[in-house]
Amino acid sequence: MRLARLLTPDGPVVGRYDDGTVVADDGRYEVGRDGRLLPPCDPTALYCVGRNYAETLDQMDYERPEVPDFFIKPPTSLLAHGEEIRYPEWTDELTYAGELVAVLDERCRDLAPEDVPEVVRGYTILNDVDALDQQGRTARKAFDGSAPLGPWIETDVDPTDIDIETTVGGEVRQDANTELMLFGPREVVSYLSKRFTFEPGDCVAFGSPANPGLVEPGERVEITYEGIGTLSNAVVASDGE
């Protein structure tokens, strides 16, 4: 089942996504006519694991981590599917990275790996936008608009063997499978839960496969995860052109 959030003139609604329609408790809403998609959850934080694919380590000349290597994006970094990614005027190196994301369904902490599926609502997609020429991960990755997320949450998917494809301007840039992760989804969520208390809607992203790369204004980034869907966002200049 796909779960989506829609912003209507009367406020957000939450329901089952079905072929362009959000079916909520109080009726059916057509995406585009009755409102626009929001990020599919409302997290207090996005916990993002880096350096989680061997090919990416080789490409970026990173050392292999012994434990999951992570950083945090704040809620203000969120963008919805279809919203424009504004190219900040203070960077010359904006990059994309297509990542799988687990969305937590309840308040929890100190999880064993085998308990993780019980607290995960489902999976969605993140574009981990990065201003590569800035100093420090927070400056690079935590700015407003650096976390396009969506388009919905898929509740029925096995995260351990999913094909990934990222295109930029229609050209395939990333083509991989989640089985290539160094640390699997259950292991990552368990590891982070020893350090943080998760709240409902919090997100855990599992890192990018090889070939994260530069984007320019005028290009569209589309990230597809098998069994989930496609997250699509256009990049525009900071002045909106």
TrEMBL record:
<dbReference type="GO" id="GO:0018773">
    <property type="term" value="F:acetylpyruvate hydrolase activity"/>
</dbReference>
<protein>
    <submittedName>
        <fullName>Fumarylacetoacetase</fullName>
    </submittedName>
</protein>
<dbReference type="GO" id="GO:0046872">
    <property type="term" value="F:metal ion binding"/>
</dbReference>
<dbReference type="InterPro" id="IPR036663">
    <property type="entry name" value="Fumarylacetoacetase_C_sf"/>
</dbReference>
<dbReference type="InterPro" id="IPR011234">
    <property type="entry name" value="Fumarylacetoacetase-like_C"/>
</dbReference>
<keyword id="KW-0479">Metal-binding</keyword>
<feature type="domain" description="Fumarylacetoacetase-like C-terminal">
    <location>
        <begin position="46"/>
        <end position="236"/>
    </location>
</feature>
<dbReference type="Pfam" id="PF01557">
    <property type="entry name" value="FAA_hydrolase"/>
</dbReference>
